[in-house]
Amino acid sequence: MADDSPRVISRRDLLRGAAVAGAAVATTASRALAPTEAAPAAEAFQAGAAAPAPARAAYEQLSAAESDLLEGIAARLIPSDESGPGAAEAQAVRYIDRALGGALAGSREAYRAGLEAFDRYSRQSRGRAFLELSPADQDSVLTDVESGAATPPEGGFVDGSAAFFAMVKGHVWQGTFGDPYYGGNANLVGWELIGYPGVRTMVSAEDQRRLERGELRSSRRSAYDDGRFNKAVVRAGGQGDSGHGH
């Protein structure tokens, strides 16, 4: 992340002291590549691009164009840099996609309308799709959206752009720092980023002192690796108990 990018939106230095975000229930969706400029903005966004893309995990709730755009946004909110991997490597968008088929199902329309409005605003205000902009210009678009100043033609944001930004930011945090059982925090990169040592059934006073000194190694375990925790339903209509770990 360049040092001269706008500082209004979330940045890695703000995440260092973050607590692990709560994770929600989940499910999955199909995807392809980002839209091209050949079609009108709304049509291009809905259609996605025909150009070949590297093989990636399939999503079930988000469309091809939606998932690519959301991944681009997440990559700027928690970027990969010299400190280590970020939201992209944590597969935060995979978490969001699963959750939109379960616990976050009520946010599906806000994502559909918001991502389309976001795409229109980027094209109208910067002359290009968000994914085609430089990192600095991407950050400036996100700053507009966060502040509520993004007003794309024909509107589209449910409750305004600031509410959309807050929703996406919160879900990206959950997908990066939540328990990996829910589809995000792949390879525990989020826990490594903030120095969280992983789930432990008991932490002694000495463990706490070692944690504060940075000496306690990560357990690299999900809460659901322990048989004493109940497993929540991960996908709508899927198998598993309805209770959360306790």
Keywords:
disordered C terminus; single chain; disordered N terminus; mainly alpha; 10 helices; 246 residues
Structural write-up:
The chain is 41% helix and 0% strand. It has helices spanning 12-15, 41-47, 64-77, 87-90, 92-99, 108-126, 135-147, 161-177, 189-194, 205-212. The protein has 246 residues and is mainly α. The protein has one domain (12-199).
Helix and strand composition category: mainly alpha
Fraction of helical residues: 40-55%
Tell me the series of helices and strands, N- to C-terminal: HHHHHHHHHH
Instruction: Please give the count of helices.
Output: 10
Main β sheet profile: none
How many structural domains can be distinguished in the coordinates? 1
Give the tally of β-strands.
0
Head-to-tail CA distance between termini: 38 Å
What is the average per-residue confidence, as pLDDT, rounded to a whole number? Answer: 74
Give the overall silhouette: elongated
The gyration radius over C-alpha positions equals 19 Å
Percentage of residues in strands: under 5%
Uncertain stretches of 5 or more adjacent residues: 1-54, 234-246
